[in-house]
Amino acid sequence: MSEQHPTSPHRRPFMAGVTEPKLHHPAPGAPPPPLPGPENPVLELDQEECWDLLIGTMLGRLAVSVRDRPELYPVNFLAHDRRLLIRTAQGTKLAAATVNSSVALEADGRSLHSLWSVVVKGTARILQTQAELAAAEALPLHPWTATTKTTYVEIVPTGIRGRRIALAEGFRLER
Amino acid sequence: MNDLPRLPDAEHPVQVLTEAECRELLAGAQLGRLALSHRNEPDIFPVNFWTHGDTFLVHGPQDVRAAVGRSSQHVVLEGDGREAGTVWSVMAKGTIRELDRPEDLETVRQRRLRAWILAPDSAFLELSPAKITGRRIAVGPEERY
Q: Positions of the region Disordered (chain A) (predicted)?
């Protein structure tokens, strides 16, 4: 690779020839990211924050369009190297993504006073070559369910959008 | 005889839920996700929703209104949760419209729906489901917590 960049075991590329994007690290002593509140209830997240949240999440929902109608499936995924990897069983989900490779994946979570949601739009493809499959097998992507899952689908993002939304009183969690 | 709910296990990891079970689970959920399609490309938004007779009232930030407006109006609403070594996921598939007529807004007012989002510019929508499906899935042991 031509560029100097920090690496960690979690960011090792799983495909040959993939270049990691430059990572952004906040300056030491920088203020923590702002939180949404009554005066600013919807906070757009930058790409780095979106990826941080995705890396810490394993359950998401995959949407595909079939004849301009959405289908939605719960999936377990791994955010890695600015891509998403999904492990799935052969079935309708795959069939739909093969017909129309434009997909969206959403993950979200809740904290005391806010909810975050990140949506990745991108192009899905099934990993085929032995090298790709071996590299994917080596990643810590465990099946979410007790069912056997053997097919890997990779999503290369074309866009990412994330936000934190303040929760109204009554929807906040108790400390 | 046995009133215990059927729960999936390692031998039968996926349990298909009846529509009644699906509706009951959705009635107890508050946060969900709305999937829609525009020019054959999908998008997903987190939303707040409530059961309303046979339909669902959906609430979300203003851009949900815009996205629904330009979508094919065919949507999927998903809710899910965790229970005792299992996760459930329910999908309500149907068509959606914005609640903007005075009588619609009166309905919303009478229900005293409390939206979870504080944004002043938000939208109420109504989803008429054509099909509701759901599954309960046993979670692999390494994922239990």
A: 1-38
Question: Greater confidence, A175 or A8?
Answer: A175
pLDDT in tens, A104-157: 999 999 888 888 999 999 999 988 888 888 888 888 776 555 555 578 899 999
Identify which of A41, A108, A121 has the shortest CB distance to residue B46.
Answer: A108
The distance in angstroms from the start CA to the end CA of chain B is 32
Q: What are phi and psi of B35, to 5 degrees?
A: -105, 135
CATH number of the B14-143 domain: 2.30.110.10
Q: Which residues of A touch B47 (CB under 8 A)?
A: none
- Per the structure block, which two tokens stand in for B16? 């298909």
pLDDT in tens, A44-53: 999 999 999 9
Q: How far is CA A141 from CA A125, B54, B143, in A?
A: 17, 39, 11
ipTM of the complex: 0.86
Q: Which residues contact B75 (CB under 8 A, 6 or more apart)?
A: A70, B34, B35, B36, B68, B93, B94, B95, B96, B127
pLDDT at residue B1 above 60?
no
Rounded to the nearest angstrom, the gap between the alpha carbon of residue B61 and the centroid of all alpha carbons in its chain is 16
Which residue from A38, A104, A168 is facing B115, i.e. has the nearest CB?
A168
CB contact under 8 A, A168 and B44: no
What's the token pair of residue A128? 């085929």
CB < 8 Å from B in window 73-102 of A = 74, 100, 102
CATH class assigned to A39-166 = mainly beta
N- to C-terminal Cα separation, chain A: 46
Q: What is the DSSP string of A89-157?
A: -SSHHHHHHHH--EEEEEEEEE-SSEEEEEEEEEEEEE--SHHHHHHHHTS----SBSS---EEEEEEE
Residue B15 Cα distances to A150, B124, B137, angstroms? 20, 33, 6
